[in-house]
Amino acid sequence: MTQVRTVPTTPFEGQKPGTSGLRKKVRVFQQSGYAENFIQSVFDVVERPEAPTLVLGGDGRFYNRTVIQQAIRMAAANGYARVLVGQGGILSTPAASNVIRKYKASGGLILSASHNPGGPDEDFGIKYNIANGGPAPEAVTEAIYARTTAIDAWRTIDTPDIDLDTLGSVLVGTMTVEVIDPVADYADLMEELFDFAAIRAVVASGFTMRFDAMSAVTGPYASAILEGRLGFAEGTVVNGQPLEDFGGHHPDPNLIHAKDLYDLMMGPDAPDLGAASDGDGDRNLIIGRGRFITPSDSLAMLAANIECAPAYRGRLTGIARSMPTSAAADRVAQALGVPCFETPTGWKFFGNLLDAGMVTICGEESAGTGSDHVREKDGLWAVLLWLNILAVRGISVDQLAKEHWARFGRNYYARHDYEAVNKEGADALMAGLVAQLPTLAGTVLGDLTVAAADSFAYTDPVDGSVSANQGIRVLFEGGSRVVFRLSGTGTAGATLRVYLENFVPPSGDLDADTSAMLAAQIAAAEAVAGIAGHTGRTAPDVIT
Ligand code: VG1
Ligand code: CO
């Protein structure tokens, strides 16, 4: 048997997983032993049965292959019986979640920094998912972090890199490594969930779309499903080749980084549907001809129409949304007579609700939507559900949106991001808000009066665990609100997110300009938080 080699090490500071795994600059990960310390810490603390299987894959960004090869050697030295790795080291985040569940793996390592840019000077990340296919819950990430602060050795075996590009099995020590097709299982799952025949029929009768894969991981998935199985014309998928640096762009599907798509959809040559996904394939952007759909609205509209999709017919048990996500979904839940849960930001908080069958569909304002088919948000899934609904109902995105608002009212919504600001300033801003909390109710800020304000804390209804300090909520009389949070995925300084929401009932103006509808909330946010003073910024970097 191949000899296990134990390599002495000392802890690195700051190996604390954030909203979604450990994310750092590539240069940080390239320090000798950095990735190894973290991976060994995972292996040291996570639950594993006898002869466990590990799933391994990533979004194809720079440094992906290096860490995959090292993780295979370390898995062999740490008692894994089998590793399933995506061909070329590729697995989108939702596809990895599916593979973990389908092949009953004990967990998986997903190598991605998601929507963060890639390349030698940009970002890398490692995330561990548990046996249900979902992101490790906080108790597990905290145990991993604690282990990183005390680690003194990692284990490996000395064996050359395996061929990641050829499908099939090889032995690494006594462990089997199977290089699997990253797309096939996922595409099969999508075909089980949705009415592909109905979609094929509208495509054949002239329905068109553009899917921008942003040179990230969804290219091969989108090509196989949209052009391959559904019959969309060749060229429907653009930027479909995964690149190590995403072509120098941020693989973040929003109106800034997917501006070409947005411009196309607002212009005279717009296809029926425009969509995009992020670095690791778990986010989605939906734009109809002349009509952008906010992710919060998308969740509500998908939930309201989920009966159109065969796999969901008659089985919507509940809806969950992250706290900063608009309350549009709450109104749908109420109308359908199912509960709506409000969780902290990050997909890991949906896992228990999904496992317990308490919710069927979940979403976040950050362009994440998903269901109980896997335990991650799923970009292409959301696009396919939209296609399924449009095909079955025979209406446009714009018509569907207008009909939805006429029934439920409209939650005008925007998020303002102040990126890479000074950390001390951002912390001071948040501390200033916390200090004001006891006296904010009743305060008049311009046209608005504060009804209540708090620091959001969540008690998981399944296991009772409590997560405090999940963002500051300022709720105004009349139902509008402002939420403040610091990002847990950034790798430089701090990123302040300000979430703005204003509800208009069906009798109100349903087709107004979003920034005009949020002007009072924007002014109130500045007045209460002193954003310019604390960050030195007079305008956000990104508005989504
Ligand atoms: C952001 C989003 C959050 C999302 C997370 C991971 O986190 O706000 O909703 O779950 O990214 O998404 P934060 O802490 O930066 O606000 V992904 O697609 O980057 O894995
Ligand atoms: Co992502």
UniProtKB/TrEMBL annotation:
Entry EC number(s): 5.4.2.2
A Pfam family of this chain: PGM_PMM_III
Cofactor requirement: Mg(2+)
InterPro entries (alphabetical): A-D-PHexomutase_a/b/a-I (IPR005844), A-D-PHexomutase_a/b/a-I/II/III (IPR016055), A-D-PHexomutase_a/b/a-II (IPR005845), A-D-PHexomutase_a/b/a-III (IPR005846), A-D-PHexomutase_C_sf (IPR036900), A-D-PHexomutase_CS (IPR016066), Alpha-D-phosphohexomutase_SF (IPR005841), PGM (IPR045244)
Gene3D superfamilies: Alpha-D-Glucose-1,6-Bisphosphate, subunit A, domain 3, Alpha-D-phosphohexomutase, C-terminal domain
Top-level taxon in the UniProt lineage: Bacteria
Keywords: Isomerase, Magnesium, Metal-binding, Phosphoprotein
Record has Phosphoprotein as a keyword: yes
NCBIfam families to which the protein is assigned, alphabetical: PRK07564.1-1
Recorded family membership: Belongs to the phosphohexose mutase family.
Protein name (database record): phosphoglucomutase (alpha-D-glucose-1,6-bisphosphate-dependent)
Species this chain originates from: Novosphingobium organovorum
